[in-house]
Amino acid sequence: MKISRRGFVKLVIGGTSAAVLVAAAWLLGTRPGRETLLSLTEQPVASKSVTLTVNGAQETLDVKANATLLEALREDLDLRGAKPGCLNGECGACTVLLDGLPVYSCQRLAVELSGHSVTTIEGLSGGASLTPLQQAFQDEGAFQCGFCTPGFIVTATALLESTPRPSELQVRQALSGNLCRCGSYAHVVKAVLAAAEAT
Amino acid sequence: MSSSVIGSRVPDVRAAEKVTGKPVYTIDIQRPGMLIGRVVRSTIPRGRIVSIDTSKAASLPGVAAVVTGKDVPPIPISATFPPSYDLRMLAGAADDMVRFVGDEVAAVAAADAETADRAVSLVSVTYEPLRSNSDAATTTDPGAPAVESPWFPGNVMAPYAPMVISRGDVAGGLAEADVVFTGSYDMPSQASASLRPYSCLAEWSGDQLTIYNDTQVMYTRQGELAQLFQIPTSNIKVVSQPLAGGFGEDNVYRFIPLAAFLARKTGKPVKMVMPQDFAFEATPNKRHPASATVSIGAKADGTMTAIDLTITYDKGAYLAGGFSVPYVGARGVFNAYRTPNMRYTTYAVFTDNPPAGALRGYGGVQSNFAVQSAMDDLAAKLSMDPTDLHALNCIRPDDVLNIQGEIVDFSQVGGAAFRQAISEGKAASGWASKWAPFGGLSGAGRVVKGIGVALLTYGFGHIPDTSSAQVAIGQDGAVQITMGTADLGGGQPTTMSMIVAQELGAALDDVSIAMGETDYPPAPFQGTFGSRTTFIAGNGAKAAAADARQQLLAAAATAMGTEPSNLLTQGSSVSRADNGQSMSFADVVKTVLGGSIVGTGQYVQTLYVSRTGFQFGACFAEVEVDRWTGKVTPTNLTMVQDYGKAINPLAVEGQMQGAALQGIGYGLLEDYVVDQASLQPLSRDWLYYKVPTMMDVPPMSAIVLENPDPRGPFGAKGGGESMIICTHSAIRNAVANAIGVRFTTIPITPKMVIDALKGGG
Question: Which of B284, B287, B519, B718: disulfide with B359, CB 3.0–4.6 Å?
Fold first, then answer.
């Protein structure tokens, strides 16, 4: 058991006293489990209304103060393309665009995001056919199981937005925060470069 | 054969879903009113449960159930053999022992995840800690703590106590050698580190149970659940959602029957979600640590006179599936060399380490490292080019050899293409200009280069099995395959669709596939693992397509006034060979038959070894070693493998690259650390267990050889495990070539390099 970053973020919202306890636990060298931490927040977590734009539509959500953006997208809006991988800011499977920039949605609290704009894998093509990048992923076989693929495509979309003609190294660097255990990296690089070429 | 679907680079038939985030993995499944289940796990490596207080957890609002080992069904008496002992859902069901950090102790079901987590934290367990043992080398000593007693006395797992498989006279062979090299090697564990959250959803309707789970072994799961709940398998439906990275699983997952138990107890669907560290800590989906000693005798010209491999696999605290892992390790010698004298001695022992089970390339990854390192070390001792040593001794395409007790005529199974792999790999990698014997480091710069080779020595198929499929042609000409194959993510639906399209003469676009449910024809029954899907399931699908085609031709022949033998099928049309007159599939089915066509087929794989196939190939790795930082950087990989016939070269390339990347991880990055004092696993997430990222990928070239296996669909051989068997060994040998240090374990970390070079290397 360990304190995940997400667990920590949730805790701080849960109450200052809990945060102090956690800090004390760390100082004492013990590593309380996430379950232990949650039990410290005995107060019911308050909910708050937030209004944000998701895939072009304005959404008003009643979210718990400790709900991550990933949870709000998946559970409140039923947008399940962003994936819960590590839930710890390590794997990139939950990547979405926040005001056009790629973020790990497991690392952002939904309550922070009133007035912001979020784009998920479901919103990239605007409901029409595939984007050139999605098409290139398909043609190059740039995935195997597909679990990490939404994260890769979202991150690469942001890259091509800011850098329409990236070098191979730029592609690798931009996508180095997205893990693929099936090991499709070589085909991903080809796909991103092909999409850059095609547009 | 008509124009070929087989051999074209076909994008994944599920690609459009995958690039839009639409596939439904287990973690995405929801049911109205479902509860969330969690497991309370042991915090100590070995001890007795003195008491469990669940009262606080049970009284928490929103908690529907808290169960301990006293509540769950006992293990069926008829099934006290260890595999079902492993099935006990919770400690306390069979005895009061916990056996590793992470062992299941209690389970909760609650209205939401947060409440379930709180309930877990409120379950108070008192343990009496007992002396534990994590050392595979001493666990069999008299007086060592007994891990699995009474099933495996002495912490040794029969039949590996030891199991000896041999041919010829090893002692005699070693005696007639000019040189005998002996080396010892340690192969650590490796985590699956799959990104998928381990999860399942169970729901009952009366006495009918449905389980949704991303599993490779649906029918095994069905059998386990039937045994535990004492209901017929026909009452149980297991649905395998697409796997988010399936790298091995014939393991026991106790959270699955626990979900079913909690669902029955609460009368609600229960979704069990394991926390992320489960993927590293408690899942048996990880590699057995192993240690080996290899002795190789050779004549002065390099001709091997004998090879003797002794290897001990650490199973950890439970059998956890993976029963055949030590047996499969024999492939490291038997599936490699033609030497008349050969012996494989293997032990499997229990410790209080987290259990190991099935991970891609199981058994063979460890023995490959020992043997391919030892061969490289022997080549250095003989002052030979290692590729010459391999080429001299490897199995040849027309050899007839005793392979693990069965006589195998390699000309009947698609040959043994080692020599071809070596020569093509040497040419493509530029071996001739890059390889030179290590000549010392004096005068060398900060960064030194090396190149190394290792043979891919493995098999596929593993065990006797059957595979069935149904291929239906509808009135609109649509072709529907139905087969109980799991979708591991390696392109299985595409491969099956291509095989059926080819055999039937249908346009690939007209073919769709339903798979992943136990209600479908089992394909293969034992599961989707061991690089067996293309071969075993593919043969079943091909037989079903052939049956459908025969029915189609019979109907078309009547309508077209000819014999079936005068008809061809291609692009979803039937045409007469003599005059070109043609009808679409739709017309034949709708107009001529008025009904539909349903073809069925089965493939039976009977014998153990000789009816199983072989994965042959080689990996050539180039590295740069930074002598200042100790960092080893792979700079190029040349991968060669015989696929018999690459059904879909795009998918084959993906398998080779992905497997090699996992091999790079195992060789250089993936350090699975268990604290030896507390036996707490320290590598619990992707931050502390480094898997390769996009920055770690060297240029890789995949060379696919095609020496058809006459038994495979269109000549195909299995090949999904591929380069994970040998990439780590090739990298180790490349490092030896670069800096002269012959490491005996992996991953080769910067610290190991620095320490070795300081020591005068």
Answer: B287
C-alpha span between B22 and A143 (Å, rounded): 14
Quote the tokens at residue A140: 């190059």
Q: Can you tell me the distance from the alpha carbon of B357 to that of B423, in angstroms, rounded to the nearest whole number? A: 36
Asked whether B254 and B221 are in contact (CB, 8 A), the reply is: no
Through-space distance between the first and last CA atoms of chain B, rounded to whole angstroms: 59
Confirm or reject contact between A130 and chain B (CB < 8 A).
Answer: yes
For B584, the domain range is 15-23+465-605
Mean predicted confidence (pLDDT) in B11-15: 94
Q: Which residue of A has its CA nearest to B16?
A: A138
- pLDDT per residue as tens digits for the range B290-344: 999 999 999 999 999 999 999 999 999 888 777 789 999 999 999 999 999 999 9
**Token pair for residue A13?**
């919202």
Q: For testing the chain B interface, which of A22, A63, A144 should be mutated: the one with the most B CBs within 10 Å?
A: A144
Q: Scan residues 9-38 of A and list those with Cβ closer than 8 Å to B.
A: 33-38
Annotation: CATH topology of A47-123: Ubiquitin-like (UB roll) (3.10.20)
The residues, ordered by sequence, that sit 6+ positions from B59 with a Cβ below 8 Å of its Cβ are: none
| Spatial separation of the C-alpha atoms in residues B312 and B15, rounded to whole Å | 42
Q: Which residue of A has its CA nearest to B688?
A: A90
Instruction: Give the closest of B20, B120, B693 to A35, CB-based.
Output: B120
Superfamily of domain A132-198: [2Fe-2S]-binding domain (1.10.150.120)
What CATH number is given to the structural domain containing B715? 3.30.365.10
For chain A, the structural domain boundaries read 5-40, 47-123, 132-198
Q: How many domains does chain B have?
A: 3
Contacts A–B by Cβ distance under 8 A: 181
pLDDT in tens, B649-674: 999 999 999 999 999 999 999 988 88
Same domain, B456 and B476: no
Q: What is the pLDDT of residues B118-135, one digit of tens each?
A: 999 999 999 999 998 889
How near does any CA of chain B get to the CA of A51, in Å?
24
User: Which tokens is A73 given?
Assistant: 């997208």
Are B625 and B739 found together in one domain? yes
Best A4, A149, A182 residue to mutate vs chain B (most B CBs within 10 Å): A182
**B266 and B302 share a domain?**
no
